[in-house]
Amino acid sequence: MRVLGIETSCDETGVALFDSEQGLLGHALHSQVALHAPYGGVVPELASRDHVRRTLPLVRAVLEQAGAAPARVAGGASTVAGDGPHSAATARGPSRAADRPSGPPAGTPPGA
């Protein structure tokens, strides 16, 4: 079974595709360290907005890296808690879409 995992709990956006028989098929990570450096720490609103911008492009990159079609993903797993009100919610949409039997992650433009 293939599972798409999305992590957006703090200042990094991470995506991975795992297969129960083959192991890790692909992964990608975007760090927000440079974004938050001027403030001396994580700014939750900036973090959540950056997660929204980065999540779907990372999902696409991981699927391409793994040579996997979205329809071949059997389920999704996402962050369920975080340090900001929006961080966990950002990951839930695409990972719930992966739980559907077919179709690309939520928000994927037609033909992508």
Task: Describe, in plain words, how this protein is organized in 3D.
The chain is α+β, with helices and mostly antiparallel strands and 112 residues long. The chain is elongated. It has 3 helices and 4 strands. 35% of the residues lie in helices and 24% in strands. Strand 1 (2-7) and strand 2 form a beta hairpin.
Can you count the helices?
3
Strand content: 15-25%
Q: SSE order in H/E notation?
A: EEEHHEH
Q: Quickly count the domains.
A: 1
Q: Low-confidence runs (pLDDT<50, min 5 residues)?
A: none
CA(first)-CA(last) distance: 23 Å
CATH architecture: 2-Layer Sandwich
Q: Under CATH, the topology is which?
A: Nucleotidyltransferase, domain 5
Radius of gyration: 14 Å
Q: How many β-strand stretches? A: 4
The helical percent reads 25-40%
Q: Characteristics of this structure?
A:
single chain; 112 residues; alpha+beta; Nucleotidyltransferase, domain 5; 4-stranded mixed beta sheet; 3 helices; 35% helix; 24% strand; elongated
Summarize the structure.
By secondary structure, the chain is α+β, with helices and mostly antiparallel strands.
Secondary-structure map with pairings?
Elements: E1 2-7, E2 12-19, E3 23-31, H1 33-36, H2 44-66, E4 75-78, H3 87-98
Parallel strand pairs: 1-4
Antiparallel strand pairs: 1-2, 2-3
Helix pairs in contact: 2-3
